[in-house]
Design brief:
The complex is a heterodimer. By secondary structure, chain A is of the alpha/beta class. Chain A is about 30% helix and about 30% strand. Chain B is elongated, with a radius of gyration of 21 Å. The chains are: A alpha/beta, B alpha/beta. At the A-B interface, helix 3, helix 4, strand 9, strand 10 and strand 11 of A face helix 3, helix 4, strand 7, strand 9 and strand 10 of B.
Chain lengths: ~260, ~325
């Protein structure tokens, strides 16, 4: 079974976001593999361990993305493809999905796994767009995946319920927290990752037309959230505090 | 032809509130974007829901009534939405950012070659074009986004856009459509959660617990206060990672981003990734024994003290408050 795992390199979730020139300042960012993509990779590795096959990582981005691919290789992926081209710099989600789809086509896998969203961008768009461009079925926000002959049985979360889906393969499945507990790279894995191949491909190598990469959305401005004002501290014993809080929530905040 | 298309989600024979939020926002935007508001309704026997969509602002309701569309499936639903958009050529398409909408919209957008902006919290119209505001980094930053070309497609964060007052005298033209219902990925079973449980992302009030509760055996204190307030239960990442509660309760950057009218954080210190997920709440109450905890920086009301003493008293007082009110 051949599995492609799409990973995105994102700022660490503990990062305090700073904005300069209407953009997130990258200088003091600690880059990590998006946590949801780690669930996707862990699931791919588990499927490989159970059924055999290979796991190929795919990531689009500038030079720094290589470190995300190395950490995925250290976890146990077999090889990696780095989609790197200045032409990708302006791509929005749809353009990114077109580039990923072009690379997936050259690999003809049985399954594509990826995170249900990239933390930071928080778009949750790539899995569905990728599936549509490939003309494959999709199951998103998976918390359980079982691969059987030519199909996958997937559990996904919706509001107040959990659904079981069945999909033919190949398919795109996106991973949600709760799917598994990603492994840590072993020292042996880290050493082995240094010898594994990371292939770099540009738009021309995958024959991606310029119009597929033309952005349909643009971020015009970025700003920090509005500040929330000063906190009102409520003093007294617990009973007094409780009664005063309820009074303020009713009379002042008008939320109860 | 200009206009706005919205997708209307329903469950158990009722429209879900985020669908009405989307059609309400479409109605408001239609005054500057012009053209009709068309709602797309998919499923067998749902035509009756068209009247409620009309009352909240739909001029047209496009119904795909087919027994084969009873359960949500991405492919035929995306085909249906894309078909209406292709025919109506609207300037904007608004889809609720619910579990269904988030699964459906990207697929439909790719089918249409449309730009999609996720999880918008407000819109403006400038020079006849839409401009959206959306949180990024789970709310640590806000982006203003514009589209190139039409349709300008967006998903709308639930619980943010107000409902238009229902006007029962408003009527909508109902059109019927047909679509290829085949799907390679299908729902085979639904396991509903306990009845009456309030969904986090759509809750008006959330009571969340953190490490200050010391152990899973004390989480009933959070549930108790939540029950008294008619609230949903949330949790910090620390207690989810420690296995006290399931991850579906997690609020924060790798959990759910919420915007209730009231958020009560109990024994939560306020790690940056937690603050990201809840700081857009209208009113925030923090209860913590450490007066220097970062949670107080985003709170409107702060109670310094022991959660084990305050929570039982607050639960009792809340019960008395609501008993007196009714």
């Amino acid at each position: 079974m051949k599995i492609v795992v799409c990973v995105k390199q994102v700022p660490d979730t503990e990062t305090r976001i700073r904005i300069a020139d209407g953009k997130v300042a990258e200088s003091d960012v600690n880059w990590i593999v998006s946590p949801y993509d780690e669930f996707a990779l862990e699931e791919a590795l588990k499927i490989k361990e159970a059924k055999g096959g290979e796991v190929v990582l795919l990531s689009l981005g500038p030079e720094r993305v290589v470190s995300a691919l190395r950490s995925g290789l250290a976890m146990g992926a077999d090889s990696a493809i780095h989609l790197k081209d200045p032409k990708f710099d302006e791509a929005d989600t749809l353009g990114t999905a077109h580039a990923l789809a072009a690379a997936v086509k050259t690999l003809s896998p049985d399954l594509v796994l990826t995170g249900q969203q990239g933390v930071g961008g928080d778009n949750s768009q790539i899995p569905g767009m990728l599936a549509e461009i490939l003309d494959w079925p999709q199951v998103t926000v998976a918390v359980k995946v079982e691969v059987q002959d030519g199909k996958a049985v997937v559990e996904r979360e919706i509001e107040g319920a959990r659904e079981t889906w069945e999909t033919t393969l190949p398919a795109v499945i996106s991973a949600q927290k709760g799917l598994n507990e990603p492994r840590y790279a072993s020292l042996k894995g880290i050493m082995a990752a240094k010898k594994k191949l990371i292939e770099t491909k540009d738009a021309a190598a995958m024959a991606i037309p310029a119009e597929a990469l033309a952005p349909k959305t643009r971020i015009a401005a970025m700003e920090l959230p509005p500040s929330r004002g000063a906190v009102k501290m409520i003093e007294g014993d617990p009973e007094t505090q409780s009664r005063e809080l309820l009074r303020l929530l009713h009379e002042e905040a008008k939320v109860i | 032809m200009p206009g706005i298309v919205t997708f209307a989600e329903h469950r158990d024979g009722k429209l879900r509130r985020p669908s009405l939020e989307a059609v309400s926002e479409a109605r408001r935007l239609a005054s500057s974007l012009r053209g009709p508001v068309t709602a797309v309704l998919v499923g067998p026997g749902v035509e009756g829901l068209a009247a409620e969509l009309a009352a909240h602002g739909a001029d047209k309701v496009h119904v795909f009534d087919d027994p084969a569309l009873g359960a949500y499936a991405t492919e035929p639903y995306a085909r249906a939405l894309a078909q209406v958009v292709t025919e109506a050529k609207p300037s904007a398409v608004l889809v609720p950012a619910t579990a269904m909408g988030k699964d459906l919209a990207p697929r439909a957008a790719a089918r249409l070659g449309a730009g999609l902006v996720s999880d918008c919290v407000s819109f403006a119209v400038k020079d006849g074009r839409l401009e959206a505001r959306r949180p990024m980094y789970a709310g640590k930053a806000y982006a203003t986004v514009r589209w190139e070309g039409d349709p300008q497609m967006a998903t709308l964060r639930p619980n943010v856009f107000p409902l238009e007052k229902a006007d029962a005298s408003r009527k909508a033209e109902v059109a019927k459509g047909q679509v290829d219902t085949s799907a390679r990925a299908k729902v085979t079973a639904v396991h509903a959660a306990a009845a009456g449980k309030v969904e986090l992302t759509e809750a008006q009030i959330i009571v969340s617990g953190g490490r200050g509760l010391k152990g899973p055996e004390n989480f009933h204190l959070i549930q108790g206060l939540a029950d008294a307030l008619g609230a949903a239960v949330g949790a910090s990442r620390a207690v989810v990672d420690a296995g006290w509660v399931d991850h579906q309760f997690q609020v924060g950057q790798t959990g759910k981003t919420v915007s209730p009218t009231l958020y009560v954080a109990c024994g939560i210190s306020g790690a940056i990734q937690h603050l990201a997920g809840m700081s857009s709440s209208k009113t925030i109450v923090a209860i913590n024994k450490d007066p220097d905890a970062p949670i107080f920086k985003v709170a409107n009301y702060g109670l310094v003290g022991d959660v084990f003493e305050i929570l039982p008293k607050l639960t009792e007082a809340a019960k008395a408050y609501f008993a007196a009110k009714h």
